Amino acid sequence: SSTVTLMKSILVSRYSSLYFHIILDSFNQVVLSKLMDTWLLPSVNYSFYSIDDFRDSISWIPNLHSSQLTELLKIQIPLILPSTVDRVIVLDTDVIVLSNIQELWAFFWNLRIENNLFALVDNTPRGVHQLYDTSVLLFNLNAMRQAQWFHLWHIVVNDGLKMPLVSFSSDYIISSIITHFPGVHFIIPCVWNVHYKNRHACGLNFSYYHIIQLNSLSSEEYHNLTSFYEQYDGKTLRRTELCDTVIKKPVKQNKRREPPLKQKTRREMCQILKRESEQIFRTHLFYYGRKYKP
């Protein structure tokens, strides 16, 4: 799924501990919890939040598509996440992270200094009805709660209800909050949310991009990029050595190479066996085709 691909892209490039807060339906929660339990990723924790528990809180907002109702839950994140969480990076599942997510997290220092509620990329040409793309957001949750975020977005939604043919989305609501309450946001560089078809607006080449929207890629580009991350499994994502001791190759003597097993000590071999015994494996069922002949 797109959620798994996104998580793999984050994990591949990480160099620090991570905590995932994942909002999803009950079916995908079963699948993803099994993945996380069997991946056994070091320094990675996670929490699940059911969409069904919060759907009613935004179901009164008119929308054109059922998928938008789920997408609107983004504005409820200060309520959904526990009060002990003071900052969070919010990502749509249709993006791919190409670099260390810790670099994006560093922009929270700007939010602390300026006391902004959130940060995002301004990658849309300015105009009277400008809509910001909210696929990538930094939420300063403590500041949002203190500023009564619930009250802010209710104001712009109620104003929108007075206008004809308004398509409510998180893009519209957050853009309207920026318009109504200047100074609530902080702009981060465009490389953190690149719409590939409009990449020239960012003025840099691919090697500088940190996050790309998948829906902006051609079918071939989409397949090539997602396939690269789909090949990773729990073993490669763990990024840890089997033994604490670095295994060194023996020095060649008289051009004779020792058998591979003798390159490790008995203790090191026991560590490998112990680690393998603790590993959790998943069983993937499959069936051979059979031509029935009565």
> Can you count the helices?
12
Main structural class: alpha/beta
Question: H/E series, N to C?
Answer: HEHEHHEEHHEEHHHEEHHH
Helical residue percent band: 25-40%
Strands of the widest sheet, in order across it, are 3-6-5-7
Assembly form of the protein:
single chain
User: Kindly, what is the distance between the CA atoms of the first and last residues, rounded to a whole number of angstroms?
Assistant: 40 Å
What characteristic shape results from the CA principal axes? Answer: globular
Spans of at least 5 consecutive residues with low confidence: 240-261
Task: Give the DSSP E fraction (strand runs of 2 or more residues).
Answer: 5-15%
Overall average pLDDT = 80
Main beta-sheet annotation? 4 strands, mixed
> How many individual β-strands?
8
Q: What is the C-alpha radius of gyration, as a whole number of Å?
A: 24 Å
Please give a structural write-up.
The model is unreliable at 240-261 (pLDDT under 50). The strands form 3 sheets. Strands 3-6-5-7 form a 4-stranded mixed β-sheet. A two-stranded parallel sheet has the order 1-2. The chain has helices at 2-13, 26-39, 66-71, 77-80, 101-105, 108-114, 141-146, 149-161, 170-180, 219-230, 234-238, 266-278, and strands spanning 18-24, 44-50, 87-91, 95-97, 118-121, 136-140, 185-188, 211-213. It has 12 helices and 8 strands. Helix 8 (149-161) crosses helix 9 (170-180). It starts with a helix and ends in a 16-residue tail after the last helix. By secondary structure, the protein is α/β, with parallel strands linked by helices.
